[in-house]
């Protein structure tokens, strides 16, 4: 089976490395990264990943605006999104899910929980 193609839109290089390594070993995934929303949107359209992991706080915009743009674009609207965020307020979690996200994990998260969430969404 080919590796899963995942796009991680996250500005923290340490989290980028941790997620990429964790998913390589736990989910057999290839992770491409973008450090801001504009790059993430461009890569999502160009590469059509199977899944997008999205931070809520980005240097050029917030993840909610990125998720909204992804879901409104016919080219990316069907790609599942999981928010990865330090934001823990119920209103923020509900906002992400209301925008069409398939999941919301709070940082710090367990890599095995992330892999299980990916399996749940993409089918394991």
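Q: What amino acid sequence fits the structure above?
A:
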């Amino acid at each position: 089976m080919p590796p899963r193609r995942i796009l991680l839109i996250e500005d923290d290089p340490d989290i980028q490395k941790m997620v990429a390594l964790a998913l390589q070993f736990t989910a057999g995934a290839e992770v491409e990264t973008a450090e801001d929303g504009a790059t993430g949107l461009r890569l999502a359209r160009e590469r059509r990943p199977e899944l997008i992991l999205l931070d809520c706080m980005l240097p050029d915009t917030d993840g909610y605006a990125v998720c909204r743009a992804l879901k409104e674009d016919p080219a990316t609207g069907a790609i599942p999104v999981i928010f990865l965020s330090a934001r823990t307020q119920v209103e923020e979690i509900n906002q992400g899910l209301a925008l069409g996200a398939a999941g919301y994990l709070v940082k710090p998260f367990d890599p095995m929980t992330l892999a299980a969430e990916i399996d749940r969404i993409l089918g394991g």
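Q: And what stands out in the fold?
A: The domain at 4-122 is CATH 3.40.50.2300 (Rossmann fold).
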